[in-house]
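Render this sequence as a predicted structure.
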Amino acid sequence: MSKTDAGTDERAMPLFDHLIELRTRLMHSAIAILVLFFISYYFSPQLYDFLVAPLADVLHKMGGNRRLIFTALHEAFFTYIKVAFFAALFLSFPFVAIQIWMFIAPGLYKNEKRAFAPFLIATPILFFMGGALVYYFIFPMAWKFFLSFESLGGADALPIQLEAKVDQYLSLVMQLIFAFGLCFELPVVMTLLGRVGIVTSKGMKEKRKYAIVLAFVAAAVLTPPDIISQIGLALPTILLYEISIITVRMVEKKRGDVDADKEDDDETDDETDEADDPDST
């Protein structure tokens, strides 16, 4: 038996043990989310104030006595439940990623673990970067755009003024934060696909125009129907796609695929030149 086979047999586990391990990791993740949910619910008023701050800043600059409303008796209560659950999912993301890593790590060799470790670190960082981008940059511009449709009215017209509902505002905020966070995972996903050979940097370059179209389609689906949030999501996604091409190429260079492809291209060019050169016969 070879050394590699022996190492594989030592790491081999029955299917039942795999299921037990998976259940353990899922239970740990669920417990972490549950604990963070109760902690977040205790601070849910402060968390909601944080989420509503971009809109509050815009309304404050516009002046007047502005407010958010709820029209059902249970609406405010369930809004705080949503805030707590949203915060628990957001904060538990790194821990859940670690649990996923602990589940798959025993089946990896040492060099594979070293290769996947950077992705484990980059995943929560990129997700938080996406959330920060939409919160600090997209929200202020989008809320100004929406509020620009307010009207003071006149003698023969009624004024148009925003009376936003708390649950609708929260749903919109969560949708945008998760959309930006997930789209920022594009370099991680594409690099992993490149590592296993499903995609190549050359193929990604050739499909760039399709990727640009898909970026705008995804932005149109994941964001509200306003041009600011759609462009705000599509442009970073396109930039992340370009970064993904670079990271996939780095993986290929490390694996030696790029050099091999270059040599094949050079040999093909030489054969073509010889075939075109009449003196070579």
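Summary. The CA atoms of residues 28 and 99 lie 8 Å apart. The radius of gyration is 26 Å.
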